[in-house]
Design a protein that fits this description.
- With 241 residues, the chain is α/β, with parallel strands linked by helices.
- It has 6 helices and 11 strands.
- It has a 7-stranded mixed beta sheet, sandwiched between helices. Strands 2-1-4-5 form a 4-stranded antiparallel beta sheet, with helices on one face.
- Helix 3 runs parallel beside helix 5, helix 4 packs across helix 5 and helix 5 packs parallel to helix 6.
- The longest helix has 14 residues.
- It is globular and about 50 Å long.
Length: 241
């Protein structure tokens, strides 16, 4: 078995302060490996987005550790965490976060700009990433000229253009109809076939279950179940609550 691309080890996270303080995560351990698409499912307030944010180094654990690319992020300051995110993590959100005055190519190229890649080669890499998500014919289109599904594909291209090993998606089909949601998950499932990339999707959407290699369930800040899927069936149900 390959080493995890990203791993949470006994992660605890407290949010807020004083009387409003809540324990969002209660000793969560989770490993994401290359070549897999993992779904994280659970009710609102269960800790899904908090866990995604910690795996992506946007939040730091109160206790516990995160390892990315085999390296612990414990003790890393804000600048180091930002560097780790730039080099190893690609984010996809329900709202596409595209700049309306930039073309699809330039929106994707922004992910390379923040890494100091602003050459002609960066433009070529952005166009290659758009081709990977089926938008080779839309490289010069502006967001308002694209459908919701196409805008989400641009966001996916932006997440993968820097060769991120961890692709983290927060409700990527939430704003899409069934057809476009299916198309987006097909793209993400294709990306997850790359053994160097792990795809992690936080979702409420039961329609996308068939795309998963693994389904992890979280409730009240704890992992309460895990199913590994092969073909159309579940072959292993994991950990009790």
């Amino acid at each position: 078995m390959t080493d995890p691309v990203v791993e949470a080890v006994d992660v605890v996270k407290w949010l807020g302060s004083g009387a409003a303080q809540v324990q969002a995560l209660k000793g969560v351990s989770l490993a994401l490996r290359g070549g897999e698409l993992t779904l994280l499912m659970g009710p609102s307030g269960s800790g899904k987005t908090t866990l995604l944010s910690i795996l992506g180094c946007m939040l730091t654990p109160t206790h516990g550790a995160v390892r990315l690319g085999g390296r612990s992020t414990e003790g890393a300051g804000p600048e180091e965490l930002a560097r780790i995110r730039r080099e190893h993590v690609g984010f996809i959100f329900q709202s596409y976060h595209l700049f309306p005055t930039l073309t699809a190519t330039d929106n994707v190229r922004l992910a390379l700009d923040v890494r100091g890649e602003n050459s002609v080669r960066a433009v070529a890499k952005a166009k290659d990433a758009l081709a990977m998500v089926g938008l080779a014919h839309k490289t010069n289109a502006f967001p308002l000229e694209l459908s919701g599904g196409e805008q989400q594909r641009v966001a996916i291209a932006r997440a993968i253009v820097g060769d991120a090993s961890a692709i983290l998606a927060d409700e990527p089909t939430g704003a899409l109809d069934s057809e476009n949601g299916h198309a987006i998950m097909s793209v993400l499932a294709g990306i997850a076939r790359d053994p160097s990339r792990a795809v992690f999707v936080v979702t409420h959407d039961p329609r996308i279950l068939p795309f998963a290699d693994r389904i992890v369930r979280i409730e009240d800040g704890r992992i309460v179940g895990e199913e590994r899927v092969r073909g159309n069936g579940v072959w292993a149900a994991a950990r009790p609550s």
